[in-house]
Amino acid sequence: MNAARQLRPAAVCLVLLAGVAAPARAVDSAKEPWEPLRTSSPDTPEELKALQDRVKKVVDQVTPTVVAVLIGPGAGSGVIVRDDGLVLTAAHVIGNKPGAALKIVLPDGKMVNGKTLGVNPKLDSGMLMITDKPPKDAKWPGAKDGKWPVAEIARSGDLKKGQWVVALGHPGGPKPERRPPVRVGRFENYTKNDQTIRTDCTLVGGDSGGPLFDLTGKVVGIHSRIGLFLENNMHVATEAFKDEWDKLLDGKAVAKADVELGVVIDDTQGESVVVESVVEGSAAAKAGLKAGDVILKFDGERLNAPNDLSQSLLTCEPGQKVKLSVQRGEKTLEIPVTLGKRSKSKD
In terms of CATH architecture, what is 259-346? Predict the structure, then answer.
């Protein structure tokens, strides 16, 4: 969403992160195209061109499936994975209200209607459904029969360290003058326990919920958390969706987060996380947080938008101790907090 951690400028063009060494040999890229599963960097200008050609082929193939998601004041991204209009996104993009109406912006700028389905706030996985038919002038195969373009899904766990990947989304929200910008990076690791993968693809606010593709053009992750450093960008593994597919499709909230800090954040303050009020008797109150405090960091990770705080809490447990960096007037305070448990009345 726009509320995701906006820590770096959006890359609005294709970015190849590898350096190019002096040519060791001449390579005809037409004869030796880039191998999609390759984990090393290009060694020659010809290999770099081969990688670029492979990325362009993937982007041309998958761009029709990449959408923007508008719900309330926020914007995020998603990817169509079924021809009836099923979209994968991040839970924090669509919230925890199954059946809520939203708008979907297609890559050409046209807008259609949709509704939220299920979410898993803990893993940050979510689904929604496009409820309109494809536009009458849609050109993709099957459009005249009411079918949507589809991106195939692959297993995140099959990725190899160093494998090249492509991130698409809508940094800063959808803009009518551009298609989903392309960022290229490499896979770092897969954490099986919380079903997240990490890459060094550059992401900013608005990318949340957008797809990560391997170089065969298959979805291997959904953008979730944007870190302080390039190597800290986290994506929901596709396994997180496959393991709970039917529940998410049925509109259920799976493993609903039950941790609570006890603050109300002022969502009108742009990129600042400003405490509007503190719930009496809550973890925040016990730790000494006050209305007007600006929360700068959550356990060392910088917060750059109001929704960043709730996104950070998704991975926490009741009773967990965290440290908040808080701006209070002229002072910056380090405040330890023991997180509380959400009461059932607040579901």
Answer: Roll (2.30)
**Could you give the count of Cα atoms lying within 13 Å of 181 in the half-sphere of its Cβ?**
23
pLDDT at position 30: 45
pLDDT number for residue 208 = 93
End-to-end CA distance of the chain: 22
d(CA 187, CA 219): 13
Structure confidence at residue 138 (pLDDT): 93
Q: Residue ranges of the chain with pLDDT lower than 70?
A: 1-31, 227-231, 255-257, 311, 314-315, 343-347
- 295, amino acid identity: I
For residue 315, CA distances in Å to 189, 196, 222, 262, 299 come to 18, 11, 16, 16, 12
Q: What percentage of the chain's residues is helix, strand, coil (to nearest 5)?
A: 15, 30, 50
Q: Note the pLDDT of residue 267.
A: 74
Kindly tell me the sign of the dihedral angle through the C-alpha atoms of 293, 298, 300, 305: negative
- The count of other CB atoms within 10 Å of the CB of residue 101 is 11
Q: Are 293 and 346 in contact (CB under 8 A)?
A: no
Q: Quickly list DSSP for 156-219.
A: GGG--TT-EEEEE--TTS--TT-PPPEEEEEEEEEETTTTEEEE-----TT-TT-EEEETTS-E
Q: How many CA atoms lie within 13 A of 48 on its CB side?
A: 13
| Other CB atoms within 10 A of residue 30 CB | 10
Write phi, then psi, for 196 (nearest 5 degrees).
-125, 155
* Domain residue ranges of the chain, discontinuous segments joined by +: 1-256, 259-346
Q: What are phi and psi of 142, to 5 degrees?
A: 90, -5
Q: Any idea which residue has 């890459």 for tokens?
A: 199
Predicted confidence at residue 230, as pLDDT, reads: 60
- Residue 221: both structure tokens together: 């992750």
Distance, in Å, from the CA atom of 237 to the CA atom of 68, rounded to the nearest integer, reads 20
How many residues belong to the chain?
A: 347
Please give the CATH number for the structural domain made up of 1-256: 2.40.10.120
